[in-house]
Every structure is written in C-alpha cells, then in structure tokens.
Amino acid sequence: MATTSSSSSTIAAVAVVITTIALQRLFVARRWRKRLGNFPFSTPWFLPSLDLLHLIRAGSIGKFLQNRSAALGNDPFYIRLPGSKGATLCLSNPADQAEILRKEGKLKFSVDLPETMNKTHGPGSLQLMSGEKHNFFRKIFSSLLSPAALQAYTPHFFQAFTSMWRELEEQCEGSKGPVVIQDAICKTQFFLMAKILYGMTPDNTTMDLMFQMRDDFEAQLEGHFAPPYSGKFRKAAEASQRLHKILAEKFDAILGKKHALLLEENVDGNGRGNKGGGTSNIPVGNAMETVADALIKEGVDRDPKVIADVIDNLDLLLEASHGTTMNVTTSTLYFLNHSKNSDKLKKLREEARAQLSIEQEFPTFDKLKAGMPYADAVIKETMRLAPIVEAVTYVANDDALFIFKGQQIKGPIKFMLPWDHFLMDPRLFPRPEEFLPERWIPTSGLYVSEEARAAYTVFGMGRHVCLGNQLAMLVMKSSLYCFVHDEARGIQFDEEKVLSKLGIFPAYSISDGFPGRVSKIK
Question: Which residues are noted in the entry as heme-binding (predicted)?
C-alpha cells in the first residue's frame, strides 16, 4: 500500500509541475500576443524549442526561415530560439523589410549579436549603438573612408598583393602539392590592414608582436560563436584583452603627438583645435591618425569613454577588413578560376588591361574605383552566391508603440531580416546557381530587375549598413587586379573536392581554405 501511495504522490507532483509550466507558457504567449500583434508563431506556444530542431535540420538560418515561411504559409512570423530573450519577428519579404527600416529612426535599432561577440569586441561597437551616439561614431569613422584617405591607401594595396601572388607562384614552383590560398590572403591582408589602420609595420613593430596580434585576431574570430564557458571563448577573451591593450597604447601615442603638434602651431591655448578646423593641414596617414584628427575636430579627444569606444571599433575594423574581406576574396578567386567560368576570368583580364597607360604599372585610384565595373560585378556576384552572413537581426529596446502591417506592436522587440533566400530566388535572379557577373552590368542584357537590386543587401541595410564597404570593395578589387595583371596566371584545383560550403560565420566559405596551385596557364 505504501508503495502505491508513494507512486501516486509522485505522479501527482509531476502533473502539478507540468500543469504549472504549461500555464506559465500560456500566460507568456497571451502576454506576447497582446504586445506583439496577431502574427503567428513558428511553433506551438508549448513547444518553443522546436525552432532549434527545425534550424538544425535546415542547416542554415536562410534555409530554416524559408522552410518555416513555406510551412506556415504566412509572412511575417515569430520564432523563438534558446538563449534569445523573447520572440523574434522574421520578415522574409523585401517590402516588409523596407517598411520596418523606415521606422528605424523612431525605434533606434541596434544589431543583435551573440553575447560572446559583444564581450570580445567590447561594448562600444558601432553595431550595438543607436540614435545620436551611433550617428556620431559613424561620422567619426567615416573620416577614414574619405576619397583622400582611400587614395592614400591604394598604392599599399597594389604593393602587398603583387608580392603575395609572386610569392605564391614561387612557392608552387618549389613544391608538387597545393598551397592554401586563403591562408596567404589572410596573412597578406592582416599585415596590410595593420599598416593601413594602425600604422604598424615590420619597420616600427617587432615581428613577434605582429604575429601575436595575428594569432589573437584569429582566436577572437573563432570565439565569437563559441559557448561562453568553453576554452575557445576564454582564449578569445584573453586575446581580445591583449589586442585592446595594444590598440589603446598605440592610439594614446598618436593622440599625444597630435596634441603636441597643435600646441606647436599655437592653434589654441588649451592645445586643441577649434571645432571645424585645426588639423586640416595634416596629411592623411593611417586610419588611427585620421580618426584622431576627427576626434580633435569634434572636441572629444580627451573623453575616456569616447576613446574606449574608438578602441572597440578599431578592433572590429581590422577583423572586418582582413577576416570578412579575406573570405570574399577567396570565394571570388574560386569562382573565377573554375573551369566553367574561364570566360569570366578572360573578361576581367581585358578590363584590367584597359586601365593602364604605357607608363603605368598600376591604375590610379580613380580608375580602380570607377573604371572597373566588371570587377565590381564579379565581387557582387560572389557575394550573392557566397554571402558572409544570411540575415541581420535588429533590436528595438525601447517600449515605443508603433504600427506594422496594420498591427499595433510594443517594444522591446527583435526583427530578423534575412536575405539569403532572395539571392537564390529564380524569379529575382534567373539561373541562380550560375556565376554570372553580367547580371550586374546594365548594358549586358542580363541586368537584374529593380526588385532584385533592392533585395541584394549583403552589406546590411538601413542606418547600420556596413561602414567599411567602400574600403572592402577597394581592397578586393586591388587583389583581383594584381592577380589578373599577369595574364598567364591561374589557379588549378581539384574541382570535385574543393567546393563552396555552408557554415555559421562566414555563411559560405571555400572548403579547406581553397587548396590550389598558383602558376602560369599554358
């Protein structure tokens, strides 16, 4: 009898727990429904973790959202993923995305990033800012992307990539096996961007420190999506601390020199330029110097919080400029050197050759930027087939009331804006599996529609669109130009084994870092 009574008590206790959880879930679902409008949820209110299962089965965010939209027969809809507070409204329609972005000013969006990424980059990232603060820091960092600054950087790009391709050819001549193309690009772009952004070169910085910084950036990148208590994340956090310390010391030294120069010029008795002037006569140097000039011009060069935010973004800039750009460059070379795309490589060579006069070894900045539309098209088509990310999620943290698609919604709320499924939609991009740079050339006869151009948002969208996209395009075009400058150069690789593959970040990459042989094509 005692055993039966004990079993009954256990069953009753379990039933109470299950009922309590179910009622709590129902209460939360009804509260959400009242605050978030009458949009459907991807999974039943009592099984929120099913979204994680659907995501795992789909293999990517883009495919997951595409599958759920088809299953629900509705757009937009809410999803709930473990570790994400509240629900996220997914907008898979370009018109809906455009409508919500028109409200960005009122809703003060910031980008929703993994907490691990926030900790490694630091809390001052532009992606985490909104409103006036975000506008201010975009203005500060846009100074390093001025035409004068980009023109000053360009010769360094040509020098670095010319050396890289020559060294890869020599390396392949001395061995029978392939080289890892992405590793070479990563190394070259790291040293290049350390010079461009920070003024750090082997002439003024020890190689031990340069290699330590490179290893730290790699560790930081690998830790962004690692579990917060894992060894990989701890390694990333330690690497980030070292990097921030180096960058802070470097930037403090640059500001010190700027202040001393202003004092010598007697610009102001307090040693700072008046807002709107004071440093315009200083020539463009590395990005740190340009940002320092902008801070002085705005009169915030002695604010420790501003300086801390600047350091966080200088860290972010190097990762974006050598990590993200490295992946796109690698994918571009993969597509161009594939046997089925030999005509595309030939067109790029012809365009590059047309940019030079007899006395020039490399094109001018103006010709590189505006005179190579096919190179632009090649990069754009690569980012369509192999985007770095598949979606962006914005957070509206305020409790503002607003109307969306006729529904009243109250924040805080998240909006996920995916674009991966647009890029492979045959209605927008006919023959979507093919590498067709011509689809981005207005006179080609294959030019995509206005709707397709609006759906192409691989650099992000709205006020948080990638700040450095001009710099990224210039770096990638320089690398491509230096590759095709030698008209006999090519990359041979095993086309059955080396493929474009899905991942978390980047969303698409070339398998095994693109192993191949750089040599003369006979």
Answer: 466
